[in-house]
Amino acid sequence: MYFHIITSIDCNSECRYCYKKSCDDFxxxxxxxxxFDFSMPARIKYSIEQLKQFLARSKTxxxxxxxxxxxxxxxxxxxxxxxNVDARYMMQTNGKLLDKLPKEYxxxxxxxxxxxxxxxxxxxxxxxxxxYDKVISNISLIRKNGFKGELIAxxxxxxxxxxxxxxxxxFSTGFDAVHWQLDAGFYQQDFKQRNFKEFSKKYNSEVSGLxxxxxxxxxxxxxxxxxPFLGIFESLYYSKTEKLRCGSGxxxxxxxxxxxxxxxPIMHDATVFQVGDILKDNPxxxxxxxxxxxxxxxxxxxxxxxxxxxxxxxxxxPKEGQDLICFTVRHLIDAIRTKLPEIRALISEGKITxxxxxxxxxxxxxxxx
Length: 369
Ligand code: SF4
Ligand code: SF4
Description:
Blueprint: E1 2-8, H1 16-24, H2 30-33, H3 48-56, E2 63-68, H4 75-84, E3 88-93, H5 103-106, E4 109-115, H6 120-127, H7 131-144, E5 150-157, H8 163-172, E6 177-182, H9 190-193, H10 196-219, E7 225-226, H11 227-237, E8 252-255, E9 260-262, E10 274-277, H12 301-304, H13 309-314, H14 319-348
Parallel strand pairs: 1-2, 1-8, 2-3, 3-4, 4-5, 5-6, 6-7
Antiparallel strand pairs: 8-9, 9-10
Helix pairs in contact: 10-14, 11-14
Bound molecules: iron/sulfur cluster (2 copies).
């Protein structure tokens, strides 16, 4: 089982699409849709022994992903957990404090998702002056100190982005993989302020350009780890269907600072998403929660997976906006499908191998952007 461990609700950044938009969205209807547990402490209140006992109720070796806020705001707790709990470790971080965690811990992580949006101009615009340089310097430091795990650049894409250029740029800076999330459907007030229709057309054309580039690199024997492509490619290539691709609600859970277990890390304090407690539950028997309509009757549900459980339940955008998001999902799937014959041929010729498409399935965020 995969668990996000929220070590700190606090964050040391005030990003435009997270902190700022959350403030701007104050007064949305989420309080009517969900009941929130406002007693959530900012830092972990359960003991390491309680965490160990919970995880040991299952025979599986779990994967723990540190998450926040910014997880490195409580470095001592991360060290304490890693010193005491046998697990696979991953982390989602903004990367600004990576130089503060000693290398003997850093080098035990199998994978890190680091928030960065593209080049310096875009990243600093979104995430604050100096962010880009700090993150790039920290990833170069951890590599120098022997970190051999996978480094995934985790971008947020919106009207200010060019996904083609940003992905190319991030591969040139030393990231092993790139993942992006569309800033779409996560806030209520922004749809009417944006021209998402225009954006979705521009975005789709950038995705098409990126797919051409992906295929051209394959012709040279290289499969770039572009997570939104890998997941869908796998389903199409092996004719498989998928449930929600982030695994939230059935394979991927979150342990909030008070020990409550939630299905989604960003909604750990909404009671509808809380499905247990580390004090009494067993990791193998946690309640499962799945997306509902309109996804369950959608013709591409088995390929999309429903995009995001939170967005599905919160339903913050009007139907027109939700349809536009689905338009981007359809484009992504169709565009990958058109490349399938050429990719199959490259695999048959031995130019590339199936194993080059392998990826960590539940890294945490949205495999469908
Ligand atoms: S395309 Fe849209 S409606 Fe269909 S499953 Fe995905 S998110 Fe749901
Ligand atoms: S995709 Fe949605 S449900 Fe899944 S982790 Fe992200 S916010 Fe939560």
